[in-house]
Amino acid sequence: MNETPHSLGTARTLWDLVVRRAGLTPGRPVLLQERRTLTFGELRTRAERVAAGLYGMGVRPGTVVAWQLPTRIETALLSLALARLGAVQSPVIPFYRDREVGFALRASKAEFFAVPGVWRGHDHTEMARRLGARGILEAYDTLPDGDPSVLPAPPAEGTSVRWIYWTSGTTSDPKGVLHTDRSLIAGGSCLAHALRLTPDDIGSIAFPYAHIGGPDYLVMLLLYGFPAVMFEHFALPDALAEYRRHGVTVAGGSTAFYSMFLAEQRKRPRTKVVPTLRLLAGGGAPKPPEVYHAVVRELGAQLTHGYGMTEVPMITMGDPEDTPENLATTEGRPPTGMEIRVVDGEIRLRGEAVCQGYLDPAQTAAAFDAEGFLRTGDLGRVTDSGHLVLTGRMKDVIIRKGENISAKEIEDLLAAHPAVADAAVIGLPDADRGELVCAVVEQPPDAAELTLPELVSYLRTQGLSVHKLPERLEVVTALPRNDTLRKVLKYKLRERFTQP
C-alpha cells in the first residue's frame, strides 16, 4: 500500500482507519504507558478480540455502551472494539459523579456501562449499581475476549451517529452531543495536518481519553504512524520522568497545561524541562498572548493553540510555521472544509467535523440556524489573513452602564502581571451599573498579596479604557476548574461572589 496521511483521512470509518494503518506499519508502536508498548498491528488484533468478547456478551451494532474509564491502553482498546462492532458509545469523564453520570446513563439509554472498579479512591462499580446502570462491566485491566470469527462485518459507512459525547455541564445538565466516525476523523485529520506532524514525533495524551480530544488524538496517530505516551493521572513534576524517558516531542492539552510546564521550567531555568520537546499544542480555553511568548522564550519550544469544542473538535489551529504575532494573538486558521461565519459578532460553523446535533431535538433546533450553521455562543472576528480571533463568550460579556466589556481582554492583560498566576474576570450584579467588573486572581507562590489599587494602576498603564477597569478584586488560592482541560468554571465564581 502507498497511502499518505491525507489519503488515510478519507477512511469511511474509524475501524477502516485502524485496518489501513495496521497494514502499513504493523510493527511500529502506537501507545506507550509506563513499561508497556502496543503496536499498530497489536492494536487491531487485540481490539478485534475484545469486540468478539463484547459480542458474546450481547453487544451488537447500534447497542448503546457507556464507559467511564481512565486514560489507559485498555480504554483505547475497548473504544476501538466498540467501533469495530458499530455500537453507539457514550464516553463519560472518569471524574464525574452521580449527578452527571446518572444523567448520561438515563439520557443515552445505555444498555451496558464499563467502569474501572475502584479508581483513585472512588468505587465506580458501587456508583453504577446505585444509579441502576445496566450491563455493568469492570474494564480497568481486564477486557472481554473472544474469537473474531464470530463477528459480523464491520460498519460499511461512517455517517451514522455512533458517539454520544457530553458537554462539560459547567452551567447546567450536560448536553449529549452526537458525532459520527466521519466527524471525528475530520477533526483529527485537520488537527494532524495543521500541526505538521511526522512519523518521527512522539506525542502525549495527558488529558482524559473520554474527552472529545481522545479520538482526535488517536486519529492523528493512525494517520501519521507515530506513538503517544498515555498518562492515567497527569501531574507535574511527577509526569516529567515519562516525558523524558520516551523522548516526547509534542505535548500540551490546554492553557493550564502550558502554565504547568512553564512553572516547572522556572524551577530550573537553565535546564530544559523536557529536552526533546519541540511543540506545545492545545485548545479548549483562551490563551493570553503572554503565555505564547513565555513558552517560546523559556521552554524553547513552539506553541500552537487552536479552537475547538465538544460539538466541533477542531475548528481552527495555529500553524507552527506562522508568524509569532499570529500565533500569539489568534487561534489560527480553519482547515479546508470548515466554514466560519460571524453574525452579529457570534461565530457560526458548518463542515464535516461539526456534530449532528444533540440528543434533545429541541436543543438541536436551537443550536443551528436556517442555513445549517452551528451557533457557538463564542464571539470573535476573522482577520484579513483568515485567522480567527476570539474575543469572548456571548454569556461572558459584562454589560456595565450599557457598555459591553470583554472579560477576555482584561484577562489577557492580567496574564502578563508578575503577581498573577491566572485570572478570571466576571460580571457581578450591581443595582446602579447593571453589572460591575470583578477580577478573580490566583497568585504565584510567595507573591505579595495584590490589591485593587495596584491592579487598577497596572491596567491603566496597559492602556485599558477607564470604563473597563475592575471595581472589585478577589484573590483565591485556586480557581475552580473542570477535570478535562482544566477550564475555569466561571459560574462557580459568580455563585461564590454574588452578594445574597
UniProtKB/TrEMBL annotation:
Residues 317-336 are annotated as: Disordered. GO terms for molecular function: medium-chain fatty acid-CoA ligase activity. Residues 20-359 form the AMP-dependent synthetase/ligase domain. InterPro entries: AMP-bd_C, AMP-bd_C_sf, AMP-binding_CS, AMP-dep_synth/lig_dom, ANL_N_sf. The keyword Ligase applies. Keywords: Ligase. The keyword Transcription does not apply. Gene3D superfamilies: 3.30.300.30, N-terminal domain of ligase-like. Residues 409-482 form the AMP-binding enzyme C-terminal domain. One of its GO terms (biological process) is fatty acid metabolic process. It comes from the Bacteria. Belongs to the ATP-dependent AMP-binding enzyme family. This is AMP-binding protein. It comes from Streptomyces broussonetiae.
